[in-house]
Automatic annotation (TrEMBL):
The reaction(s) this protein catalyses: Hydrolysis of terminal non-reducing beta-D-galactose residues in beta-D-galactosides
Family assignment from sequence similarity: Belongs to the glycosyl hydrolase 42 family.
Lipid metabolism is among the record's keywords: no
EC number: 3.2.1.23
Broad class of enzyme this protein falls into: hydrolase
Gene Ontology molecular functions: beta-galactosidase activity
Residues covered by the Glycoside hydrolase family 42 N-terminal domain: 6-392
Residue ranges of every copy of the Beta-galactosidase trimerisation domain listed in the record: 405-599
Keywords, alphabetical: Glycosidase, Hydrolase, Metal-binding, Zinc
Domain named Beta-galactosidase C-terminal: residues: 606-643
Stated name of the protein: Beta-galactosidase
Length: 654
C-alpha cells in the first residue's frame, strides 16, 4: 500500500521545489509522477534540448527520498512542432481539424508525429533511463482521451488500407466478407477504400468495425514504439500507461499483450465518472458526493486483469474536479476511502492528482492535495490520515496480493464496438449492461474478477457473460471442459467476426451446449416493459428483449407475462433473453451463484466489501450509517464495524 502524487515542477517557481518534496515525504507519499506535459520546456525549439531544469527537479525529488515516475510528453506537442507539421493535427469525423491550444492535438497515425515521438522519448530515456530513483515510466497520457482517436486523416486512411490488405489479402475476399454487394459498395482495390465517415446514411457496420479494430491497433502500436525505446534505455523500470475509467475506444487486453506493459495504471475520478456515465438520475442523485459504490471497483477489477495482476491508480480524485457536468465536493472521508478501496482490489500504489491546485490555465478549478496557497486541502488532510494509518499498521503495510475470485465477469471490447455501431435501440449500451451485472454481484457481497473471454476461465466456479457478440469455438470448449456455471445475457452469439448474423441464428455456437434460437429481437422504448417475476423478485425487461425458442433438452426457467421465455438453461449454462431490471439480474445471479456453491449475502444499501490478503474491507457509500458484516469476534485492523457515510473498516478473516 503506497501513496503517490502527480506533480508539475515546471508550473511552479524553483524556489518551491525542495519544500514541496519535503512536504510530500512528511505527508507519507513515496512516489511522484512528473513531466508528462512538459515538452515545450524540454525542447523549447526543434532539436534544442533544455534538460537542466528537469535534472534539478529529478534530483530535488530523488534527494528527498521519493521514487519517480517519469512521463513521456507526447500528449502535448509544442507549437513549433505543430507549425512545422500542421498535418499532425487530428481530423474529426466531420472532416475538420482540431486546433492547437490545449492537448492531445495529434494524429496517432501520423508517421511524422511517430518519428518526433521516438526522437523525444529517446532523448529523454538516454538521459534518465538508468537513474536509480526513476522506478517507472508512463507513456503519453490517457491515450484516446478527448475524442482525438479515431482520426479521419489521410495518414489514417493509408494505414487503414494497408491494415485491410494484410487482413483480407485479396479485394474479392474483403468484398465478400463485408457483403459489399449490398447497395453496390464493392471496391475494385484496397486503395479505393475510404474511411467510414461522411456517408449520407450508416456506413457498412463491418467497415465501421474494421476501422475500430484498426484504430485500436494504431493506439497499441503508437504506445509500443515508445516501449521499445524505453525497454532499451530504462531496462530496470516498470513501464506503464495511465488508462481511463469506463473507456473502450481500444482493446486494452490486446494493448497489454506481448510485454507492452509491466503495470496497468488508470486514472480514477469516481464522482465525475458517476456523473458522466449512463446511470439512472436517481442513482446519480443518491451518490452525488460519494460516487456510485461500484464505479471505481469495476475498473480496479478490469485493470487488475489487464495488468495481469499488477495495477496502480496513477491519478486519484482528491477533491472536486473541473470536467464533469457538475463537480461537487466529495463527502468527508471519500478521498481516504478511495485509497483503501483501490488497495482492497489489489492496487500497489494510489497516486493522487495533483500535489497543488494550479491557479491558472485550464485546470484552475481542479483541486489537489494542497490549495493554491500551499495549505493542505481537505483532501490532503484525508491523505495524511490514511498515510498515518497505513504506516502504523503492519497488517496494512504487508498486505498480500488478492486471491483469484470465484466469480468472473467477461468484458469484451469488440462487443462494445459492435453494439455501439448497431445499438438497434438508443438506450442499449453494452458496458452499462455489464456494469449492472457487476453491481448485482457486488451487492451480493462477492469478489469479482473481470476477464477477457480468451483468458483461462477453468478455475472459476461461476462465469458471467452479460453479453458477447461473437461466441467462438474456443469459448464453447471452455464451457464444455470446465466445471463452472455460466450465465449468458442477451445478444450473446448474435454476430460473426465479419458482423453478420450466424447462419444457425443467434446465439450461434452457444447452441452446441444450449440448444435454443433467437427468432426475433426488439428494443424497448420506456413505455414497453414486459413484466416477469423470478422467485420473490418482480420486474420487467428494459431496453432489449428477444423472442426465443427452446430446442432439445433446454428448459424454460422463467417466462414473461406474454408467455415468451425469459430464462433458459441446460445443465450449468443459463441464457437470459432480455435486459432485466436490476433486482431480477440480482435474483438470477444469486440463484446461479448458490447453485455453483458460492455463498452470497445481501449487503445494506451503499455498503460494499472486498477481500485481500487475509483481510476483509468494508466501505460505506450510502447516506445512512451501517454495520459492516464482520463476525462478532472479528479483529479489526482499521476502524470498527459501525460505518458512517464515507467510512471504511477492515478486519482479519478467521
Ligand atoms: C486526467 C488527466 C490529467 C488531468 C485530470 C483532471 O484525465 O490525465 O492530466 O487533466 O484528468 O481530472
Amino acid at each position: 500500500m503506497q501513496l503517490g502524487v502527480c506533480y508539475y515542477p515546471e508550473q511552479w517557481p524553483r524556489s518551491m521545489w525542495a519544500d514541496d518534496a519535503k512536504r510530500m515525504v512528511e505527508l507519507g507519499i513515496t512516489h511522484v509522477r512528473i513531466a508528462e506535459f512538459a515538452w515545450s520546456r524540454m525542447e523549447p525549439r526543434a532539436g534544442e534540448f533544455a534538460w537542466e531544469w528537469l535534472d534539478e527537479a529529478v534530483a530535488t525529488l530523488a534527494d528527498a527520498g521519493l521514487k519517480l515516475v517519469l512521463g513521456t510528453p507526447t500528449a502535448s506537442p509544442p507549437k513549433w512542432l505543430m507549425d512545422a507539421h500542421p498535418d499532425v493535427l487530428p481530423v474529426r469525423a466531420d472532416g475538420t481539424r482540431w486546433n492547437f491550444g490545449s492537448r492531445r492535438h495529434y494524429d496517432i497515425s501520423s508517421e511524422v508525429y511517430r518519428r518526433e515521438c521516438r526522437r523525444i522519448v529517446t532523448a529523454m530515456a538516454e538521459r534518465y533511463g538508468r537513474h536509480p530513483s526513476i522506478v517507472a515510466w508512463q507513456t503519453d497520457n490517457e491515450l484516446g482521451c478527448h475524442d482525438t482517436v479515431p482520426s479521419y486523416s489521410d495518414a489514417a486512411r493509408t494505414r487503414f488500407q494497408a491494415w485491410l490488405r494484410q487482413r483480407y489479402e485479396r479485394i474479392d475476399a474483403l468484398n465478400d466478407a463485408w457483403g459489399n454487394v449490398f447497395w453496390s459498395m464493392e471496391y475494385p482495390s484496397f486503395d479505393a477504400i475510404g474511411l467510414p465517415n461522411l456517408t449520407p446514411t450508416d456506413a457498412n457496420p463491418i467497415h465501421l468495425l474494421d476501422f475500430r479494430r484498426f484504430m485500436s491497433d494504431e493506439v497499441a502500436s503508437f504506445h509500443r514504439e515508445q516501449i521499445e525505446v524505453l525497454r532499451e534505455h530504462a531496462p530496470a523500470a516498470d513501464l506503464l500507461h495511465n488508462f481511463m475509467g469506463f473507456f473502450t475506444t481500444f482493446d486494452h487486453y490486446r494493448f497489454a499483450d506481448d510485454n507492452a506493459l509491466d503495470v496497468a495504471a488508470w486514472d480514477s475520478y469516481p464522482i465525475a465518472r458517476t456523473e458522466s456515465i449512463a446511470l439512472p438520475e436517481e442513482q446519480k442523485a443518491r451518490y452525488a458526493r460519494t460516487a456510485h459504490p461500484d464505479v471505481s471497483a469495476f475498473d480496479h477489477d478490469r485493470y487488475r486483469a489487464i495488468g495481469r495482476g499488477r495495477f496502480w491508480v496513477m491519478e486519484q480524485q482528491a477533491g472536486p474536479v473541473n470536467w464533469a457536468p457538475w463537480n461537487p465536493v466529495p463527502a468527508r472521508g471519500m478521498v481516504r476511502l478511495w485509497a483503501y478501496e483501490a488497495f482492497a482490489h489489489g492496487a500497489e500504489l494510489v497516486s493522487y492528482f495533483r500535489w497543488r491546485q494550479c491557479p491558472y490555465a485550464q485546470e484552475q478549478m481542479h483541486s489537489g492535495l494542497n490549495l493554491p496557497n500551499n495549505e493542505l486541502s481537505p483532501g490532503g488532510l484525508e491523505v495524511q490520515q490514511a498515510a498515518r494509518e497505513i504506516a502504523q499498521s503492519p497488517a496494512l503495510t504487508g498486505l498480500g496480493a488478492p486471491a483469484r475470485a470465484s466469480v468472473a465477469v467477461v468484458f469484451d471490447y469488440e462487443t462494445q464496438w459492435m453494439f455501439e455501431i448497431q445499438r438497434h435501440g438508443k438506450s442499449f449500451d453494452y458496458q452499462t449492461l455489464v456494469f449492472d451485472y457487476y453491481e448485482s454481484l457486488r451487492e451480493l457481497g462477492l469478489d469479482v474478477d473481470i476477464v477477457s473471454s480468451k483468458a483461462d476461465l477453468s478455475s472459476y466456479r461461476l462465469v458471467v457473460v452479460p453479453s458477447i457478440a461473437v461466441i467462438d469455438a474456443a469459448l464453447v470448449e471452455q464451457i464444455e471442459r470446465g466445471g463452472a456455471h455460466w450465465v449468458f445475457g442477451p445478444r450473446s452469439g448474435s454476430k460473426t467476426t465479419t458482423f453478420a448474423i450466424p447462419s444457425s441464428l443467434p446465439p450461434g455456437a452457444l447452441q452446441r451446449v444450449l440448444p435454443m434460437q433467437v427468432l426475433e429481437v426488439e428494443t424497448l422504448r420506456p413505455t414497453l416493459a414486459p413484466a416477469i417475476s423470478i422467485g420473490d423478485a418482480q420486474g420487467v425487461a428494459n431496453h432489449w428483449r428477444e423472442h426465443v425458442r427452446a430446442n432439445g433438452e433446454t428448459r424454460i426457467d422463467a417466462q414473461f407475462d406474454d408467455a415468451w421465455p425469459a430464462i433458459l438453461s441446460r445443465g450449468k449454462v443459463r441464457y437470459v433473453a432480455a435486459w432485466l431490471s436490476h433486482a431480477l439480474h440480482r435474483a438470477v445471479l444469486q440463484q446461479a451463484a448458490n447453485e455453483a456453491g458460492i455463498e452470497t449475502q445481501q449487503l445494506a444499501d451503499g455498503l460494499r466489501i472486498r477481500r485481500r490478503g487475509g483481510l476483509t474491507f468494508a466501505f460505506n457509500f450510502g447516506a445512512q450509517p451501517v454495520r459492516a458484516p464482520a463476525p462478532a469476534n472479528a479483529t479489526f485492523v482499521l476502524g470498527d464495524a459501525l460505518l458512517k457515510t464515507g467510512d471504511v473498516c477492515a478486519w482479519q478473516d478467521a
